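ok trying this again, last paste got cut off
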Amino acid sequence: SYIDRAALLKDAQKLLAKTADAFKAAGVTVETVHTSDPQAHKAIVDTAKAKGCDLIVMGSHGRHGIAGLMLGSVATKTVTHAHIPVLICRT
């Protein structure tokens, strides 16, 4: 199937800008980073390490049962591989 990478990038940039605006409105300094990796948890951990972060904050759908086991969880993998604390917010 065809993947429109330009559209995906545009959507990601919009979401990052919206998120950054919300943080800025709350008086929080924020830097957004967009990266791509087949293993999302690796990209998250590597970026946090490269940026010298002291906390990773991420959302999770909180899937339970078979869906949670079969699909795996980026949040769980991030917690497992991170060198710093990870705060998971259920979305």
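PB: full thing came through this time. The helical segments are 5-25, 40-51, 65-71, 74-81.
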